[in-house]
Every structure is written in structure tokens, then in C-alpha cells.
Design brief:
The complex is a heterodimer of chains A (about 110) and B (about 110). Chain A has about 110 residues and is an all-beta fold. Chain A contains no helices and eleven strands. In chain A, the strands form two sheets. In chain A, strands 2, 4, 5, 9, 10 and 11 form a six-stranded mixed sheet that branches. Chain A has a five-stranded antiparallel sheet with strand order 1-3-8-7-6, with no helix packed on it. In chain B, strand 4 and strand 5 form a beta hairpin. The chains are: A mainly beta (about 110), B mainly beta (about 110).
């Protein structure tokens, strides 16, 4: 079963605009991760935010985490056509057999030139 | 080397064929994973290897058989697959099977079962 839910499912914006994607999860976490996937390709790890962090930046990316609401957001500023991709949040579920990373449903971002 | 390499990139196989998917990394990662991804869906975990031992099997049918010959290699042996097994198969690795590490993914094998 999937741990996270993302919204919106699809987002279409113009180049230069900001894109915000949201993720909600169900159980307690140690961290939350964001990945990007270009069509039919592998996933690329973008950023990891730990449960004791509230905000993290990496280049044009800003991630926030609200553990009280079990939610996270990914902001891409000054978007480019090359940012067109699917974006997934992912959370590690801890079990006796170890940790498993489970993904949200994803947001399909289209940046129009 | 900061990559996970998967071969082949594309594979078409009949339902009676036997084939293998291969995954290789040289980053010293001790956890390796197989995920299956259908179109417009998130990746779903199939298997986890930690220190070359199978630690998680997500109730995957026996027609999928994983193998970890050494710390750098991960194989997925396929036999008697069904058309619904057609998907993108992703291999990933991480420093260890604990929660505070990001995963490095390969570019996947696009499998079509005919």
C-alpha cells in the first residue's frame, strides 16, 4: 500500500512561474524524500528532509515538512521547461525486517515554454 | 562512480521464455532494491537485499526470482511471465537499509511480455 498522497495529480504552468506540490502521509517518519522522474526513466533523488527539520533548500527547490499535519510541500521556483517530469514524495516505513521506501501517487508537472 | 546501471534497457519476451535483468553499482552501497512501475503509477517495492541477504519479499509471485551474487550485483530472473507483468523494472541502491539515506535508481528495464 502507498504511504503518501500527493496533490495536485497534475500541474501545468508557464516557464518562470513557481510550482508547488503537496504530499501527505499517514505514519510517523524519520525523514521524507522527494524524487523526480522524467518520462519512462529512472527516479532521481532531489532532497531529503529529516523529521526534526522544518525547511530545506537546494538550488531552486524548497521543501517544507509539518510533522503535526503529516504533510510536506515541494516548491520549484522560476520553473524551466526541463523541470517537466513526475514528482514523487517518498517515506521510509520502519519494520522489523528493515526499512522500505514507499512512494506517493505523484504529481505530473508540465512547464510550458 | 555514482550510478546504478541496469541492463537491458528494453526487453520483449514470450510467456515461455526465461530471461534475466541485471543491476550493478560500485558505490559501496550495501542495500539494493527491485521496484516495479506501471504506467502513470508510483514504483512498487518487490524485493530488498541487505548485505547480500534477502530481507524483504513483498509477496511477489515465484515467476520472479531475485539473486544477489555479490555486493555490487543484483539480478532478477524471469520465467513464465504473464502479459500483466509488462512494466518498467527499476533497480535502486542505498548506503544501507536504514531510513536516513536517499536511494540511487537505475534508468530501468522496460519489459514487454507477449
Amino acid at each position: 500500500s502507498q504511504q503518501g498522497e500527493e496533490d495536485p495529480q497534475a500541474l501545468s504552468i508557464q516557464e518562470g512561474e513557481n510550482a508547488t506540490m503537496n504530499c501527505s502521509y499517514k505514519t510517523s517518519i524519520n525523514n521524507l524524500q522527494w524524487y523526480r522522474q522524467n518520462s519512462g526513466r529512472g527516479l532521481v533523488h532531489l532532497i531529503l528532509i529529516r523529521s526534526n527539520e522544518r525547511e530545506k533548500h537546494s538550488g531552486r527547490l524548497r521543501v517544507t515538512l509539518d510533522t503535526s499535519k503529516k504533510s510536506s510541500s515541494l516548491l520549484i521556483t522560476a520553473s524551466r521547461a526541463a523541470d517537466t517530469a513526475s514528482y514523487f514524495c517518498a517515506t521510509p516505513l520502519l519494520e522489523t525486517s528493515g526499512s522500505r521506501l514507499t512512494f506517493g501517487e505523484g504529481t505530473q508537472l508540465t512547464v510550458n515554454p | 562512480d555514482t550510478e546504478v546501471t541496469q541492463t537491458p534497457k528494453h526487453l520483449v519476451m514470450g510467456m515461455t521464455n526465461k530471461k534475466s535483468l541485471k543491476c550493478e553499482q560500485h558505490m559501496g552501497h550495501r542495500a539494493m532494491y527491485w521496484y516495479k512501475q506501471k504506467a502513470k503509477k508510483p514504483p512498487e517495492l518487490m524485493f530488498v537485499y541487505s548485505y547480500e541477504k534477502l530481507s524483504i519479499n513483498e509477496s511477489v509471485p515465484s515467476r520472479f526470482s531475485p539473486e544477489c551474487p555479490n555486493s555490487s550485483l543484483l539480478n532478477l530472473h524471469l520465467h513464465a511471465l504473464q502479459p500483466e507483468d509488462s512494466a518498467l523494472y527499476l533497480c535502486a541502491s542505498s548506503l544501507a537499509q536504514f531510513s536516513n539515506y536517499g536511494y540511487t535508481f537505475g534508468s530501468g528495464t522496460r519489459l514487454t511480455v507477449v
